[in-house]
Write a structure and sequence with these properties.
Layout: H1 4-15, E1 25-28, H2 33-45, E2 49-55, H3 62-76, E3 80-85, H4 97-116, E4 121-122, H5 127-139, H6 144-147, E5 153-154, E6 157-158, H7 166-171, H8 190-206, H9 209-239, E7 246-247, H10 248-252, H11 256-270, H12 279-290, E8 298-300, E9 304-309, E10 312-317, H13 320-330
Parallel strand pairs: 1-2, 1-4, 2-3, 4-6
Antiparallel strand pairs: 5-6, 7-10, 8-9, 9-10
Helix pairs in contact: 1-2, 2-3, 5-8, 5-9, 9-11, 11-12
């Protein structure tokens, strides 16, 4: 096998090939094996880089753990290492601990990137992380965009190691002492259950190639989703009526995969919170197009309603007084 350290370095170099050698990048480091491998690979390239460790404050010794990760980065050669403490808040709409922590972490990384004018933030996800993501989203009944998993590049975010096996990535830091996050063994988290139970079961049943297959499926679905999104963007404009809303006949002529993308976008633009807009809401709007039998308006999150009138689909906020009147009439 090729030298794992060289494999990791080449993957990072390829990911950053479009950037100037003097452009600074941000490296997200948790202290775990994958992020340390990423940090070492960037240090081996000798390009300007800032290592950022986010202390989520979720464990009693989180501050000391963050400082150990910072020391490891300094030992690898990073001159600029930053530890940022964040407050992870839970409550309605936060999506649970994992989602809340991810939002705070990303906000902290974005803030440093903006301060330094860095064009990229590097994350240490591997091929197994991609396979786990696909399985997790598959079980949740996700569509093509969600099943396409994580992308190697999305705006500010880059994942140079996403196509590399975890064993190769971790072999590149076999001489170091990475930190092991207790949350990675906490079965309360769905991703942990997928990592320790679901993915190994799939590999046992199908064979070691299952991980590659899931990652390859994600890449293929991403291509499909990109094409459908582009089609929907064009069709969105073409289906709009000069009187407002959307021409029903134009929407009805589209494949459902394109039409539902348009309906979701239209609902969000009308004021629906994206996190509250479900597949059932979109299906209700679609029924106004394809299963029309004179039904009334569809209530959507954020005080928005969708209705069909005179061959058009109209989505708009209902003023509170009108909303109360409508509720009285329906009862």
């Amino acid at each position: 096998m090729s030298d794992p350290r060289a494999v990791v370095r080449r993957a990072i170099e390829a990911s950053l090939a479009d950037l100037g050698s003097d452009e600074r990048v941000i490296v997200a480091v948790s202290g775990g094996a994958d992020s340390l491998a990423l940090a070492r690979g960037v240090a081996d390239l000798g390009r300007p880089a800032t290592a950022v460790i986010v202390d989520h404050g979720l464990q009693a010794d989180s501050a000391s753990t963050a400082e150990r990760a910072a020391e490891a980065c300094r030992a690898l050669g990073f001159a600029d290492v930053r530890v940022i403490a964040v407050q992870v808040s839970l409550g309605p709409g936060t999506g649970g601990l994992e989602a809340a922590a991810r939002r705070e972490r990303r906000a902290a990384l974005e803030s440093v990137a903006q301060e330094l004018g860095a064009p990229a933030v590097l994350l240490g996800h591997t091929r197994e992380d991609q396979a786990e993501t696909v399985l997790l989203r598959l079980a949740r009944g996700s569509g093509a965009r969600s099943l396409s998993g994580m992308s190697t590049r999305s705006g500010l975010w880059r994942r140079p190691l996403l196509d590399l096996p975890r064993r190769v990535v971790r072999a590149s830091v076999s001489d170091l002492e990475p930190w092991s996050d207790p949350h990675n063994d906490d079965e309360r988290f769905a991703r942990v259950r997928v990592r320790h139970s679901a993915l190994p079961a799939v590999v046992d049943a199908v064979g070691p190639a299952a991980v590659d297959g899931l990652a390859r499926s994600a890449a293929l679905l991403r291509d499909d989703a990109d094409a459908l999104d582009e089609w929907a963007r064009t069709a969105f404009q073409e289906a709009q009526s000069v009187d407002g809303g959307f021409i029903v006949a134009a929407l009805e002529a589209l494949p459902r995969a394109v039409r539902t993308r348009i309906l979701r976008t239209a609902a969000i633009e009308a004021g629906c919170p994206p996190t509250d807009l479900t597949a059932a809401h979109v299906d209700g709007l679609d029924a106004l197009i394809t299963r029309w039998h004179g039904q009334g308006a569809i209530d959507l999150p954020g005080g928005v309603a969708g209705r069909r009138e005179y061959g058009r689909l109209v989505l708009a906020r209902i003023p509170p007084v009108a909303m109360r009147r409508q509720q009285r009439e329906e009862t």
